[in-house]
Each structure stands twice: as structure tokens, then as C-alpha cells.
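Ticket #4471: structure export looks truncated?
Reporter: QA, pipeline team
Priority: medium

Steps to reproduce: submit the single chain below to the structure queue and open the exported record.
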Amino acid sequence: MHDKTLTELSASLAAGEFTSRELTEHQLGRIERLDGALNSFITVTPDAAREAADHADAARARGDAGPLTGLPVAIKDLFCTDGVLTTAGSRMLADFVAPYDAGVVERLKAAGTVSLGKANLDEFAMGSSNENSAFGAVKNPWDSTAVPGGSSGGSAAAVAAGLAPAALGTDTGGSIRQPAAFCGITGLKPTYGRVSRWGIIAYASSLDQAGPMARTAEDCALLMNTIAGHDARDSTCVARGVPDYTAELAAPLAGLKIGLPKEYFGDGLDPAVEAAVREAISVYESLGATVREVSLPHTHYAVPAYYVIAPAEASSNLSRYDGVRFGHRCENPSDLVDLYKRSRAEGFGEEVQRRILIGTHTLSEGFFDAYYKKAQQVRRLIRQDFLDAFQDVDVLMGPTSPTPAFDLGAQKDPVSMYLQDIYTIAVNLAGIPGISVPAGFVGKRPVGLQILGTHFAEQRLLNVAHRYQQATDWHLRRPELAEENA
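Actual output as written to the record:
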């Protein structure tokens, strides 16, 4: 069962090949046997999963089943989940049990999905390797000496290893797309405002966006049909109709105009990654697409602009964790100031503290105009670069990451770690959608092809990704771990 895609599992459940309870027991068994080597889950919820599966089977028996009814999913531990430990990968929230469901979790529950548990992540979604979790690093299913990417590394690893057929992730600067690339799965970062952020523990509010992670673009389209849409509780969520994302998946690509940003193929790109990406682009040409070089001239400002804006917003969002209302509280504080200082020092990890300090500095008097305001002005230029490019092409393509997955512990310098997101963070600054699909390997480590579109072009991106997956088999490859102990 674990070798089937989400779409195939939906068809199998509808055909009565097995029940949701049987499927859920199968996935829970795999998690129990295999996740010790990966650490992709922080919390597994077997009792709740079985109960949800039984409800799904009862709904199906009544003739009241939808496309997602009875399908198991993993939820990144950044989404509040009613009655379930919700940690954000941090000691600060190690004992926090959410009293409500995030908007997208509500939608998935209403659709009849079965949550297997909460997936590991970099603390408060701050990281590119999933080594920053207070609950230990996640390992890449393709190579246990490599990182799975971050911050949604637990979600990506669980899907790649066949522990869950799909997962929810969040993407603030590439945190869906980069781990999808490193783990050889498909990950979609929707347009900012397309999916509700209500109930997602905030990192950077103007950048965070929830999205699906699965084996195929078809599976991501199936999930988008449920999770996309307006939520009045999220003031940044756009009141716009939701198309059927599966309706145009098979549309032909003849006449598709692809732009290759020259800035994405320069210094720092691993030659083997570039070769795999260019081979993928040649597949599109064989499908009738045309390719031209374009320029995104402000790309080299994306990393510094992002690492001013995101930490500034993080500094503001994380100020609520003061040891008073909820979250970690130090023992025996001598006074209120001591309570604040020690609770935050003990509750937050090194990378989170670093970003809080950066953000507090850039927002302080005398530095706000020089840093934060200037970064927002640069952000506008980066957004305009994309809008200008989409006047001439339908989609942009390039590598998701400059390298394949790197070794655990290899990135000692924070700046070198930040540069791993060089091709993804501009997408969040501009608020446009992007998808990463498997496009080859360097050794035994996967390579991702990133496809970008203009605002609310998810349907087109999913079509472009799906047609590539019909013509190739990279998305069908499985790590050895996924086939063990079936």
C-alpha cells in the first residue's frame, strides 16, 4: 500500500481493495518500524488515527466519501492541532497542547483525512537542514548521512520513506521546495494568501505559506482542492474562487514559453545539478515548449533582503514567548526580568536566538530605515523582476537548490547555510507560487527542478509539473528504506 500515490490510494479505497483502517494500520506499522532511523515524526497519534479511519470507513459505507476520505497524512508540527502536542520543534513549546485546529487542518479533517501525527521540523521553521529541531535532526531517507532539507524536513522524509503518502508543510523561504528536492518528492508553495495561515505558529508573517508535499504533482493538486480557499480568520488570505486543480493536469504543453533566469545558472551551482536541470528542460522542449533566457536582475539582493525582513518579523512574532502566558518557564526566577531572560534563553535554540537578535537590531531606532525599510524597497524590486519576466514567458525554471542534500553537520557557518536558499527565497519575497519536482540524482542524492509562475498560477504549475512526470520516472524512484519491511 505504501508504494501507491495518494491518487492511487483514493481509487483503491473507492474500489474496496482495502479499508482506511487497514491502510492506517499499515502506515502506523511502518512508522513504528522505520522512523527510528529517520526521526521524521515528533508525535505519532495512533489512537486518533484509528478513530479517524473508522469514521472514514463508516462515511464510505454510507456513500458519503470524497476524494480524500480515509487517506493518511502527516502534519508539520507548526500547525495547531486540537488536543495534540504542537511544539514547533522547540523546547519553548515542548509541552504545548493546542486547543484548536489550524484552518488547513480543519479542512483536511472535514475532507475525511487521517492524521498520522506531527512531523519534525527546524525550530519555529528556522533552518534549511532540519538540524535545528529541539527533538533531534531528521535524516534523509536516500542517505542517512545527509540532511533532508528544511524546515519541512520531517514532512519530506516521511513521504519519501513511505511513512505517509502526503504531508503538510510550510514555506517561508523555500521550506517546502528545498526539502522536497533533497528527498526526491514533489512540493508546492502556493501564492501568498492562497491558503489560510490561521493556526500556523508564525515565523515571518508576510512570507509564511502552507502547502502540500507528496510524491506527484497530481497528488498535490488533489490536496490543493481541499486546503486552498478564503479564511476570514486570516486577514492575509485572499477571497478568491478556488479552481479544480486536477482539471487541467493533462493539458498539452505545446506553445509553453519557459524562461531560464540566467542568475540561477551562475557561480555556486553544482555542475551535476545544472546538468540534471538542463536535461529536464530538454524534456519540456520535446513536449513542445520553447525556452529562452531571461533576467531577474535583483536576485543577488534576495538573500540579504530576506535575512533582514524574516528575522525582523520573527523578533516581533516570538516576543509573545515570555514565560508568563504559555510556553517554557524557567524555574525559581528572582524577578520578572530574570523570568523573561532565562525562560527565553532556555526555551529558544541557537538559530532562533540568532534571528531574534538580528531582527531586534534591524527594527531598533536608528537602524529601521537603514535596514528594514530598505529591505522592503528591495523586495518590491524583486517582485517587479518576476512580473516583468512573466510578460514574456509562462513559467520560469531552474534548480531548486544549488547542490544536492549536504552532509549532516557539514554547514558550520550560518551564512553558508542561508545561501542554500538562494533560488527559493525570492519567490517568497514576491509572493508567487513555486513547485519542486524530482529531476534526477547526483550519486544517490536527488535533484529538484523548480518551476515558478505568476500569482495564482498554481493550476498551470501543476499541469506543467504533471506532464513532466508523465514523461519521466524520477518521481517513481524510491530509497531502499522505503522498500524495507513492507
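Status: closed, not a bug. The export was complete when the record was re-opened. Leaving a note from the reviewer for reference: The chain has 16 helices and eleven strands.
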